[in-house]
Specification:
2 strands; 67% helix; mainly alpha
């Protein structure tokens, strides 16, 4: 049986130490994420609801895809909680997230949110996420279709169509 040279043992010891340090850092990051989620939850409880930055809807993703991806990756919510908030099945949420993750590999980078919207508004059951968003921005915030379109990076005709279809559903 061949005996390991001292240099090989030293290298494997260094690798082992590096692996341990990496694991310690991962644990610390997990704890920090957990603390951040708790702080966000406490803040949202005080404010009453979760706020979603409108910036996420201006990507190449659909409105529901963007919302589920943001909730999973940026806020670290589990499917069970998203299901409770949205009323959608875990399977549908999983497929939506998978589709979004394949289209956009990175999480949303929200610098300074210009405009936030309550999550409760986005998940009203009668309408799609985009319909709820457009209805709220048009009716409650008094924005013009062109302003909404620019904010959401969509064509103004699309916004008008979404709005009129949602109005017919009412």
């Amino acid at each position: 049986m061949r005996q390991k040279p001292a240099k090989e043992e030293e290298n494997s010891s260094l690798i082992s130490d590096k692996d341990k340090k990496i694991q310690e850092v991962k644990t610390q990051i997990s704890l920090l994420q957990y603390e951040l989620i708790n702080l966000l939850s406490e803040k949202e409880e005080q404010e009453g609801t979760t706020k979603i930055p409108l910036e996420i809807f201006s990507s190449e993703l659909g409105a529901l895809e963007a919302l589920v991806k943001y909730l999973r990756e940026n806020l670290g919510l589990e499917y069970k909680l998203i299901k409770k908030i949205s009323g959608r099945s875990i399977g549908a949420l999983g497929k939506t997230y998978s589709s979004a993750a394949s289209k956009q590999k990175y999480e949303f980078l929200i610098k300074i949110p210009n405009f936030n919207i309550d999550i409760d508004i986005l998940f009203a059951q009668k309408f799609t996420v985009l319909e709820n968003l457009v209805l709220h921005l048009k009716d409650k915030s008094g924005m013009r279709f062109s302003q909404i379109a620019k904010m959401l990076n969509r064509d103004p005709r699309t916004i008008w169509t979404v709005y009129t279809r949602a109005k017919k559903k009412k």
